[in-house]
Amino acid sequence: MGLAERILKGDVRAAARLMRDIDDDLPDAWHELKKLYPKTGRAYIIGVTGLPGSGKSTLVDKIVEIFRKEGKTIGIVAVDPTSPFTGGAILGDRIRMQRHSTDDGVFIRSLATRGYLGGISRSTHDIINVMDAMGKDIIIVETVGVGQDEVEIVNTAHTSIVVTVPGLGDEVQIIKAGLLEIADIFVINKSEREGAEKLEQELRVMIEMAPPRQDGWTPPIFKTEAVLGKGVFELIYGVSRHRNSLIESKKLDGKNKLRTKKHFLKLLQTRLLESVLGRMEEGETLDKMLQQLVDRKGNPYGLVEKIMREHLKSHLRSDHGGKGKTHS
Ligand SMILES: Nc1nc2c(ncn2[C@@H]2O[C@H](COP(=O)(O)OP(=O)(O)OP(=O)(O)O)[C@@H](O)[C@H]2O)c(=O)[nH]1
Ligand SMILES: [Mg+2]
Predict the structure, then answer these.
(1) Residue 190 C-alpha to ligand 2 middle, in angstroms?
(2) What spacing in Å lies between the alpha carbon of 104 and ligand 2's midpoint?
(3) pTM of the predicted model as reported, rounded to 2 decimal places
(4) What is the fold, at CATH topology level, of the domain defined by 41-257?
(5) Is any ligand 1 atom within 6 A of the Cβ of residue 56?
(6) Domain ranges in the chain?
């Protein structure tokens, strides 16, 4: 039996194996993902983002606890940007969420952002699809809210939660990181700290000043103290209110389409680039081309046109001759 069939039968080890293969970008993983895709599209996806150390993992841990009591099954994807900010985030996440790791209803996967051609958001989508096919009711994606790719991941969740902390000047960072636009819900965590009220007011002003959203939703603000689990019930209620609003305003389909589009374009981009670069290795090397550009013996615009022409031509040839490299 292949990995996909085993995963659909509930084999957790097969799922872990496929996720490793996705990490290693093995062609076989692509094949299994194809088989799993028809079984995806059921899970509700929650994105949790915020600056390093704001308490995202602690919060996710408490959210999971409540969902589990409701009998829901959960997948967690913790994206670690391996940035200088968060050297040990993966280990930290494991420890903070460890008590769930012996629970059959919870599947945790950490993902490091190392050298993916299609960017971390592509592999995150793939991992989400595996968890979705596993039948998880809710999939929570934790990313640090710095960097285009990380913000983009959360942007494709059904409900995006942005976590802030009093006293760090977070509101400025949030605007800079483009998180204001994507937040469906704001959380002020570590709200026992001084400045929580002030931050709440500032966030409220920011929300009011922002251009009205197309979906008509006004992001609520919740104050939590994740270590003690305070305010987490209210937050979950906020998530379900947002979910209902998406359903009532018929925006859920639109969100799903956006997610699908981003994933699909990323896949296409990756494969095209791989294919073009692969052929280049067979002929003129990339390095030689770059040197030509540096020496101004060619220009990047003309070179791209030339490569595209040759690429299309060779594809047409291989279509007829059947010698082309295809992923089926
Ligand atoms: N005082 C206080 N500390 C908290 C609260 N919530 C979390 N913490 C602590 O904040 C630290 C960081 O928490 P994490 O949950 O790892 O934060 P994170 O946002 O996941 O961190 P990264 O994944 O590294 O970006 C830990 O030491 C937590 O115990 C809170 O409500 N109050
Ligand atoms: Mg974390």
Answers:
(1) 14
(2) 21
(3) 0.88
(4) Rossmann fold (3.40.50)
(5) yes
(6) 1-39, 41-257, 260-321
